[in-house]
Amino acid sequence: MRCQLIALLDETERLICDGAISSGFNRLVDGLAALEAAAGPQRFRSEMVPACLDHPIRPICHQEPITRHAFTRPRGYAGDAGLIDLYYGLAGPSPDDTDLGRELYRAVASRSGGESVRYRRSMLASRIDAVATAFGRQSRVLSVACGHFREGSLSQAVVCGRVGRVVCLDQDPRSIDLVREEMAGRPVEPVAGSVRWLLSRESDAFGRYHFIYAAGLYDYLSDPMAGRLTARLFELLHPGGSLLVANFLPETAERSYMAAFMNWDLRYRSAAEVRQFASLVAPGAVARMTSYPDPEGNVQYLEIHKK
Ligand SMILES: C[S@@+](CC[C@H](N)C(=O)[O-])C[C@H]1O[C@@H](n2cnc3c(N)ncnc32)[C@H](O)[C@@H]1O
User: Fold this and answer.
1) Which residues contact 281 (CB under 8 A, 6 or more apart)?
2) What is the pLDDT at residue 300?
């Protein structure tokens, strides 16, 4: 299997250097996924990832801004909001980036995983608008692990001040500072805090919400933490409110490239595992629960409505 991996890396390096940048890159991503499917996640990480990082294709991949940002972790942790901005197209290559890096950036950002991230943003903006329409000026929304809260600038209710209040929580004070600056004058309350704080009774002081969501968070949580958090977020809902959480699916084709060249490994979960997030929610309090994948088939959503 190591021979197959080296053949793939050699072939895609040659394609990219010969100018077939997008097709070479896509061949690399899909080839790595096939090798991980054959070897299994553990063997892929213990044997194949080190070989990827030793190969001359690594500095080529690291000319690409998304891959380099993820790998170098400028904020000290995986999956920061600056990285997600690169997928949103709100940040991009810098003047120092090479032409090859720019072309690779287009290839990375336009893949299905990136589409899922952009879909998530616009879908959340529509959901905030719908909650504002349903509950008017009294509406309260909680965005857990909000990052740069980029769905806010797509939401008419946020931009026009139709929503009552959106509390935006993130553990990264740099992201919270950016939200405070960019959302000044809007009905948005940025809070620097962690999931642990949300789990504590202290967070009761912030009241209850009509809509709570967490995007790009559960992919980093253990199963017990995911269960506890879901139960707590459900508790924080007003009667008639809804909770929406999301998790990347194991079918995500970019996962092997991300593990190898981006040092970005998520907790991929099946649809059944995502439904398990609700295991600690009292069934008697649930009006309706639905779970569905996004149009790209990369992200599974779980939505729980309170009676
Ligand atoms: C992948 S980003 C997603 C940002 C945003 N929700 C989006 O969809 O664009 C993940 C965010 O989760 C935040 N985060 C991770 N662990 C957290 C925790 N335990 N408590 C609060 N925020 C957390 C990070 O700081 C980061 O901003």
Assistant:
1) 230, 231, 234, 304
2) 98
Alpha helices, DSSP H only, in the chain? 2-17, 21-39, 41-43, 49-54, 57-61, 65-72, 81-88, 99-109, 112-135, 156-159, 173-182, 195-199, 223-235, 255-261, 271-275
Token pair belonging to 159: 């931009």
Residue 195 CA, ligand 1 centroid: distance in Å: 10
Which tens digit of pLDDT belongs to each residue from 176-190?
Answer: 999 999 999 999 999
How far is Cα 244 from Cα 148, in angstroms, rounded to an integer?
Answer: 18
**β pairing state of 237-248 and 209-214:** parallel
Average pLDDT over residues 274-279: 98
Distance CA 174, CA 74 (A): 12
Q: Is 219 in the pocket of ligand 1 (CB under 6 A)?
A: no
Q: Which amino acid is at 248?
A: F
pLDDT in the model for residue 1: 81
Which amino acid is it at 134? A
SS3 197: helix
Can you say whether residue 42 is alpha, beta or left, with left for phi > 0 and alpha for psi between -120 and 50 degrees?
Answer: alpha
Domains located in the chain, CATH noted? 1-61 (no CATH), 114-306 (3.40.50.150)
Q: How many whole angstroms separate alpha carbon 5 and alpha carbon 32?
A: 8
Token pair for 2 = 């190591």
Residues β-bridged to residue 11: none
Nearest CA to ligand 1 atom 12: 145
Is pLDDT of 272 > 90? yes
Report CA(136)–ligand 1 centroid distance (Å): 27
Residue given tokens 């929406």 in the structure block: 244
Q: Residue 205 Cα, ligand 1 centroid: separation in angstroms?
A: 22
Amino acid at 202: E
User: Encoding tokens for residue 130?
Assistant: 């719908």
Tokens of 34: 């096939």
Ligand 1 atom 6: residue of nearest CA: 146
